[in-house]
Write a structure and sequence with these properties.
38% of the residues lie in helices and 19% in strands. The protein is an alpha/beta fold. The protein folds into two domains: 255 residues, Dihydropteroate synthase-like (TIM Barrel, Alpha-Beta Barrel), CATH 3.20.20.20; 87 residues, Sulfite Reductase Hemoprotein, domain 1 (2-Layer Sandwich), CATH 3.30.413.10. It has an eight-stranded parallel β-barrel, surrounded by six helices. Strands 11-12-13-14-15 form a five-stranded mixed β-sheet.
Length: 379
């Protein structure tokens, strides 16, 4: 028998022809994994995601050349498009004519024009969105929390929620209400905690749910399912993204997994989880996206999983990240971290960088470091 889920009474936010929040069905999103400047490949992936059932597709734009490519991609699809603004928030004025939603990360706003107040930068983004009929997503990530909030709050979860609430208040003060919020972490339990806290404070704001760097299937799907089951069943969540490390041509798996999870929750089917899930070795990896600097990243993540199987019983976290945008910060909390560059991989132990190794040698060095950690815990 279907389960009647009473959703939080969030306001409705329009993204192109799609509505997020209010009485609208939960919207499913994904992100193009190809290089944005490869117009043919990115256009093809947008089509593949649409065929898989995506309601919105996000594309990363980091330069003016990316913007030029985005304009071509836009001409080839009617699907609502979202765009990531990274550290250069002023790209908003160039990308807004070609998309339906702008996503910015509060933790990145301090990098560019450091002397300018944050509210002034947000006002620029909001004004640009208003002029070009765009919605906004305020996307707070665990690995790049606003440093002001980290100084103010000892607890990272409080800092994440406070950052999101602050930006809601800034946008509200500007009279701009066409926005959604996301609060993401690679730990599904933290995702549940911060989204519950935020929803208690701002039940009116539509929430975009996701476990960032969920990893490879099936573990990545299980982590996401756990978070979604707990949140959506309690009325929290208006749009979702399943972030999986899969080959570029298989990105449709994210949409399929999301639809399956939503159907199961609606039907009252809550999947059982292996008794030992969450114990022992934990490998997290970001979803393949257009910022990945070497296509070997996905293969490397799969190889890491294979060569570390012997350490399954140890409570050790290994993070595998695909680029320099999120890689440095989002590997800090892992026991061992790898973040990929164009020709080599940065290997870290906690926050300490061990070195920069070729793709053909980094696995051996990773194993050495893993053995060293295991040895200290066996003492």
């Amino acid at each position: 028998m279907a389960m009647k889920i009473k959703r939080n009474p969030t306001r409705s936010v329009r993204v192109g022809a799609i509505q997020i929040g209010g009485d609208a069905p939960i919207v499913v999103q994904s992100m193009a994994a190809t290089k944005t400047q490869d117009i043919a490949a990115t256009s093809r992936q947008v089509r593949l995601l649409e065929q898989a059932g995506a309601d919105i597709v996000r594309i990363a734009v980091d330069s003016k050349k990316d913007v030029e490519a985005l304009a071509e991609i836009r001409r080839g699809t009617d699907l609502p498009l979202s765009v990531d603004l990274q550290e250069n928030y002023r790209l908003a004025s160039l990308v807004a004519p070609h998309v339906d939603k702008l996503r910015y990360n509060p933790g990145h706003l301090h990098h560019h024009e450091k002397d300018k107040p944050i509210p002034e930068k947000v006002a620029f983004i909001a004004r640009t969105a208003q002029e070009h009929d765009c919605a906004i997503r305020v996307g707070v990530n665990c690995g790049s929390v606003d440093p002001r909030m980290l100084e103010r709050y000892e607890d990272q979860q409080q800092a994440i929620v406070a950052s999101a609430v602050e930006h809601c208040e800034i946008l509200d003060g500007l009279g701009f209400e066409r926005y959604v919020v996301s609060l993401k972490d690679s730990d599904w339990q933290k995702v549940v905690a911060v989204n519950r806290l935020f929803a208690e404070q701002r039940p009116d704001v539509p929430l975009h749910l996701g476990v960032t760097e969920a990893g490879m299937p099936p573990d990545g799907v299980i982590k996401t399912r756990l978070a979604f089951e707990q949140l959506i069943s309690q009325g929290v969540g208006d749009t979702v993204r399943v972030s999986l490390t899969v080959p570029f041509d298989d990105k449709g798996e994210e949409i399929t997994a999301a639809r399956d999870i939503l159907r199961d929750i609606e039907a009252g089917r809550f999947r059982s989880v292996p008794p030992s899930f969450g114990e022992g070795l934990n490998i997290i990896s970001c979803p393949s996206c257009s910022r990945v600097e070497n296509n070997r990243f996905v293969e490397l993540a799969q190889e890491v999983k294979l060569v570390t199987e012997y350490a399954q019983q140890y409570d050790i976290t290994i993070a595998v990240m695909g680029c320099r945008v999120n890689g440095p910060g989002e590997t800090d909390d892992a026991d061992l971290g790898l973040w990929c560059g164009p020709a080599a991989v940065n290997l870290k132990r906690g926050e300490e960088t061990i070195g920069y190794f070729g793709y053909d040698e980094v696995l051996s060095r990773l194993k050495d470091e893993l053995d060293a950690i295991i040895a200290t815990r066996a003492d």
